Every structure is written in C-alpha cells, then in structure tokens.
Amino acid sequence: MKTSTLHLHTSFKVGEVDPRVFGGFLEHLGRAVYEGVYEPTSKHADEHGCRTDVLEALKRLRFTAMRYPGGNFVSGYHWEDAVGPRENRPITRDLAWQSLESNQFGPNEFLELSKRMDWTPMMAVNLGTGTPEEARNWLEYCNIKGPSKYAAMREQHGYADPFDVKLWCLGNEMDGPWQIGHVPAETYAIQAQQTARMMKMVDPSVELVVCGSCAIELPTYLEWDRKVLEHCKNDVEYISLHRYVGNWKNDTPNYLAVTNSIDEQIEAMDSVCKSVAHTKRMKKPVKLSFDEWNVWYRVRDGIHNDGGGKFAPHLLEEEYNLEDALIAAGFLNSFIRHADSVKIANIAQIVNVIAPLLTRGDEMVYQTIFYPIEMMAKRREGIALQVQLDGPSYASEDFGDATYIDSSAILNGDELSVFLVNRDLASSHEVTVRVGDRSVASCLNGELVSGTDPKAANTFESPNTIVAQNFEASVGGGVATVKLPPMSFYAGTFKLG
Ligand code: AHR
Questions:
Q1: For labelling alongside 217, which of 245, 344, 431, 468 has CA 20 to 30 A away?
Q2: Looking at the structure, do residues 306 and 294 belong to the same domain, yes or no?
C-alpha cells in the first residue's frame, strides 16, 4: 500500500464553487432530444412527452446551467422555426450533423422543462448563419413583457409571462474551421460585440458568454481569445473553453494524467483574461465558462458525425468505462481547484450523445461516468480549498509527472468534502486528510467507484458492472484516513471539530 497526505487549511480558500459548474448540455444532435429527453410514444412519457426515466436519472445529477440548443447545431438554427403551434413548425435540414429536425421540441418546451427540472437555461444564439438582430429578437421574445412584436408573439404562443433567461452564449465554437459561418477572430469579435450590445439594450440584466478557443490543438489557440477579449472587453462576462479527451494510445496511466493538461488549459485562458483586463483597463477580468467537456474519441470519425439525412440518428453514442469515469472525476476536480476562475462548466452532453445515460427503446442504462458526477454533485455546495497533495507520482508520456492521487476539497460550514482519484492501476493508496487548523471529528458519509478492469463498462445486458458503493473512511487523531483501492474514485464528507 502506498501512502499520500492531503494537506488542507480552512483559511486557504480558492473561492466559492459556483453551482453552475455542475451544468449540462442538451443539443439537437442524434438522439439527445428525440428518444432522449423527449419521446411522446415511450411508455415512460409524461404529459409533456418527456421521458420520466431519463428525467429522474438527470435529477440525481443535480444539473444547474443547461446549455441549449447546440453546439454545432445552433450555427444553422433559426429559433422561429421551433416556436408556436407544433403543426405549423417546418421540418428543417441540420447541416452540422446532416440530420432532419422536426422542431417538435423547441426552445419553449426546453424552457418549460428547465423550470420543472430546476435548471438555469443557458441559451446559445446562432452567429453562424444568424444575425445580431435575430439574437436580439429571440431575447425580446424570451424576456420582455409586451406589447412589442416578439413579446406579443410569445404571448400569442401561450406564454403570458416572460421566461427571463439570464445566460446566453454568443454562438458556438466560432474558431473551429468546421463551424458553419466560421470566420477569423477579428470578424467574430465584431459580430459578438454587436450582438452583445443589442442584447443588452433589450435586457441589460443578461450575462453573456463569448466563444473562446474550443480546442488546444487549433493554430489560433489563445490568440483568438486575446483578440476577441480585446475587442469585446466589458460587453461580455464569460469566455468559453471546450475540451474532449480520449485514450487514443490505449495507455491508461498516461490518459489519467490528462488532468495536468486540463489545469494548464484553465490557467492559460485565465491568464489571457487577466492580461487583457489589465492592458485594456477593464473593470474586471472575464471569467471562464468551460461549457463542453467530456471523453469523446471512439465515435468521432465521419460516420459517427453524419446523420444520413434522418431524424434522430444514432450519433456520438460513446460507451464509457471505468477509466473514463475517473477522467470525469478529474475534470470536476480541476474545475473545483480553479473555482476562482471557472464559473460555469457543462458536461457534453446529458443523454445518448456522449452522455452519462443511454436509452434503447424503453430501456436505459447508467454509464460509468454517471456515478462520479452524482457523487460530486451531491457535495458541491461550499468553498473550494487549496489542495496540497504530498505523495508518490509517476511520469506520464504526454502530460508530465502526475501524483497518483488527484484531489479537490470543498468546505461547507463545518463540513468538509474531499474527492480523491487513485490513478494507480496496481496499488492501493492510503490517503491521510489533514486540516492544518482544525481536526477531523467524524466521517458523515462516503462512496467509492472502483474496479479491476479499466475497460469495464455498464451495458444493457450487464448494467451494474461499475456503480457507486458506500465506503467507510476512518477518523482518528484529528485526521481522516481513506484507503483507496487501485483505479478508484472516492467522495466523502467529514465533520470538522
Ligand atoms: O458536443 C458535440 C459537439 O462538439 C458540439 O456540437 C460542438 O460544439 C463540439 O464540437
């Protein structure tokens, strides 16, 4: 058994964990909407046509900000196609995913669902084929009391009260050459600023996310961000980051060390925000919205991106295993460690498409990544503490040295939650949790996800191969001791004395 110590101190605070860091993303892509959250013909359908089995599972993840309707999809989307009486809504062609869109589930259905699910809607406007004016019209439709044109349209559609949507994204991945309407940073910056200004003239209370670099591999990485921020300055509140990772080399220790690179990505983007704030004499730096993150590599090629001109095709249906679950915990650990800069983060996505849930007919399976997200979401309230992990490390091929234990911690009054990933494939680790200025008095609860095979997955035939189980940590002498099996993730809460 190897040993590590997690050193904490309740005065060494990073910042309040913004609840929106536990956000999700629902795109009109594949079977995320249709056969995912919405399937009126399912035996699970409620009176709104939504699948109660899916919604009940999603409730367990306590999602906050929910990004909608895309994604690449939004860059060719016209919201007016998807509001009003269903029988009048046209079938449209989605070029991003080469699919057909029935528009039977649209923004109003999403906003009603958000209300029922207690989600904070995070709407993306179309800056691919759309215009600043179309975006401003949508905002008027959503947030303004009549009698003006779009507010009246909403009322006519049966929604007397405004939806009051506070969080909006100014397009999606506009730096990506694959994006419909992709333009150079200078052009996007002008469009984004014009859109931001018009939207804030309609409703000054909204918060806006401008598109930042969506992949660290792109040649414009961070230069795009600097240019966009220098132009938009105080007109936006957040800049987006995206990251999809994968075990392309089939080297599990290397794969699990990718958290080093996620930390670096956040810190690099935060540095650009701070640098621009300083040079442009801004009131404060723009904060980070990590609004797409996940594992995505097995179903990433052309075939999996092409819907073949069908409704609700099977696209991006990644099947997750134990090592992917540890990566999901690693992403969230990194966001908590950077609670001062990361204010929003959205797992991409929530059902069927690179998601913690998969449906097949009326059946549903909880994928491995479901459990770490649930374990952390349960314990998400509070202030992130700085973590100092002293313990053995290993050299990874691509991401430098990584401690075997990856960690984060949240303090909520007298309760301390710790999150520990053991990325050692062979050895158990005993982790001592020491809080410099307080004693650990008792263990309130704890759960563990673990297994002996990094490739172990939950399938429809064998749905419970990897699940969270209750797990005891011991407390004595003012410290907690957690004995982590190889390849495991632990989340537990302790009472401080
Ligand atoms: O989440 C799947 C896709 O990944 C999104 O549509 C796009 O924004 C990103 O490239």
A1: 344
A2: yes
Name the residue with the closest Cα to ligand 1, atom 6: 71
Q: Report the interhelical angle of 370-377 vs 52-60 (nearest 10°).
A: 50
27 C-beta closer than 6 A to ligand 1: yes
Number of structural domains the chain divides into: 2
The residue segments making up the domain with residue 284 are 18-380
Strand order in the sheet with 92-94: 92-94, 99-101, 310-311
Residue with tokens 């397009």: 171
CATH number for the domain including 106?
3.20.20.80
Answer yes or no: 430 catalytic.
no
Neighbours of 442 (CB within 10 A): 11
The pLDDT value given to residue 303? 77
pLDDT computed for residue 146 by the predictor: 85
- Among protein residues, the one whose CA lies closest to atom 9 of ligand 1: 71
Phi-psi region of 62 (alpha: psi -120 to 50; beta: other; left: phi over 0): left
- Structure-block tokens of residue 242: 């995206």
Mean pLDDT of the chain: 98
Percent of the chain with pLDDT over 70: 100
Residue 238 binned pLDDT confidence (cut-offs 50, 70, 90): very high
Confirm or reject: Cβ of 315 under 6 Å from ligand 1.
no
191 and 53 both lie in a single domain: yes
pLDDT of residue 495: 98
pLDDT at residue 296 greater than cutoff 90: yes
Ligand 1 centre to CA of 442 (Å) is 43
- CATH at 486: 2.60.40.1180
Of the candidates 39, 173, 237, 323, the residue annotated as catalytic is 173
Residue 115 CA to residue 176 CA, distance in Å, equals 32
Among 387, 389, 417, CA closest to 492: 417
pLDDT for 266 equals 98
